[in-house]
Input
Amino acid sequence: MDWDWLTSNRALITDLLTQHVYLALVPVALGLALALPIGFLTARFARLYPPMLAASAVLYSIPSIALFIVFPGILGTQILDPINIVVALTIYAGALLVRSVADGLRSVSDQVRQSATAVGYERWRRVLKIELPIALPFIFAGLRFVTVANISMVSVGALIGIGGLGQLFTDGFQRSFFTPIIVGMVLSVLLALCADIAIVTTQRFLTPWTRAGRTT
Amino acid sequence: MNILAELFGFFADPLRWSGASGIPTRVLEHLWYTALALTIATAIALPIGLLIGHTGRGAFFAINIGNAARSFPSLGVLVLLVLLAGLGITPVLVALVVLGVPPIIASTYAGVRGVDPATIDAARGMGMTERGIVFKVELPIALPLILSGLRSAALQIVATATIAAYVALGGLGRYVIDGLAVRDFAEMLAGAVLVALLAIAIDVVFAIFGRLVVSDGLAGRGPRNSRPATESTTDQEYV
Output
């Protein structure tokens, strides 16, 4: 471990870490924004559910590196444009989260839905106040998976020149220099851990009833 | 779109279909890394998953180790091992196995835990040994979930095997890395398309394999002279 390298490259490391966070988390947010309406539709119209599952599985089975490379061709962007990574990872996140959203909404029992209607919730308020909260544990499980997956997948982008902390791996490898590789690994794992803790904490805050049910 | 034309050009070139850097060789190399890594990952993860699923002990530990392993960036693991151990197939396999183990453990555990306790009680009551319960009751019933874990492990491994080329090995990643080096976008794209096709092929193989090995009763495809699905699962033992 070369500690001098660490201090003299603080700015570079911070930049790469920021890029990593951006490349990994923006797609999660965009994916969720896409998944909520699509998931809602597939949960509402049962006929859409099987094709959605199939589409989600196919999209998720396309290797990330393939998407990173295919997009410049489709979007007309430069191959070294970070937007390719963002678009590719958004598709993954969206594909997976649509499933979580739909499964969550489908888990709401008819009795609950009817009770809500009976006590005066009209349709959209019922969706937002009753059905969505009940679906939250499913959505959060999906979010946790997608976030950790994205954080480790971003590094692969380093093979084509944009990979946040992954660039520390390629840099260290080319110079047979361990320090950047170890720094990159530690930061990447810590980032995944922090993101996971943040999501779990948000979930505990948003779904207090799941814990209340367990103690009684 | 001229990039598509270039892509077709790549696949239409007969030179691309033969020799050490030809498409068939690269596909076979890629499949070889994938198969080897998946086999090792299964050999490690399946017994662990069955054990913690059957005993219910150590689950928290195993699942959390699994989740931690999932957050390890494969490229980092790979370059670190190459610098430590030198070039060769071992670092690639280790990086891919690390990727494959967590989904297999998690799905095997979930599958075994999901077996109806009444079924296990019945098996025990009939005098089956613990080993018999694991292999003749829990494993077959958990099979659909185990296969889905194997499938997602296989998909991640086949996608990530691309990085083998970064440390001077073969496989389809060669086209991506070599193409990038000379800014030959069509070659990179061809590599990416081939990896995606391979992933889809593996997906299909798993779907077919699943139909063949999962008990008809479990899959909801009862025998022709139809009886309830729960009964047909026990009949399978004697067929």
About this structure: Chain A is about 80% helix and 0% strand.
